[in-house]
Specification:
This protein is an all-alpha fold and about 180 residues long. The chain contains 10 helices and no strands.
């Protein structure tokens, strides 16, 4: 993307060259659609930084992209992950997710209509994303976000409210900016 600045051209290159190494063109298209729907929400400065960032910085930016793309996940990050961190509760459990889910389902009928197996799969995917983002350990301990000044500045320039998607205290954010 940084070379052509056109997501449609990127799509053509990725699919034509099977850059995602998918077995079928339909799975490549599906994976590309999911990836691009997230990454395209990052700012140009964030994308530029992403290309040369450390693994941890990349993970944090990809978590931001997920939070920008999915309101439910962003609200979970703010209302559960960060809140538990700020209250010095060190673990994040499936029960925490289930409680959050049931609260949201009271206001969003579409959530209440999902099957139990879909709910469990969504929960499992979210916990895996948190693990890959290095915000949750394998034993479900909340891992504080440790931003570099550059990454913090990029997030602040985008929208300072996005810091609330991470387990980090306001005073730590202020020290970085």
């Amino acid at each position: 993307y940084l070379d052509v600045r056109d997501w449609q051209k990127v799509k053509v290159q990725v699919l034509a060259g099977n850059l995602l190494q998918s077995r079928t063109s339909s799975s490549a298209a599906r994976v590309y659609r999911e990836i691009s729907s997230r990454i395209s929400l990052l700012t140009d400065d964030q994308l530029q930084f992403l290309a040369g960032a450390t693994r941890k910085e990349q993970n944090y930016l990809l978590w931001l992209a997920v939070c920008k793309r999915y309101v439910f996940i962003r609200e979970f990050a703010i209302e559960v992950l960060r809140e538990k961190f700020l209250c010095l509760e060190s673990t994040l459990s499936h029960d925490d997710y289930d409680s959050f889910y049931h609260q949201k389902a009271l206001w969003h009928e579409e959530l209440d209509n999902l099957s139990l197996s879909t709910r469990k799969k969504n929960r499992s995917v979210l916990f895996r994303i948190l693990l890959e983002a290095e915000l949750l350990s394998a034993d479900k301990l909340i891992v504080p976000a440790l931003f570099t000044r550059k990454l913090a500045a990029l997030i602040a320039a985008d929208n300072p409210s996005f810091f609330s998607c991470y387990p980090i205290a306001d005073r730590d954010i202020k020290e970085l900016l």
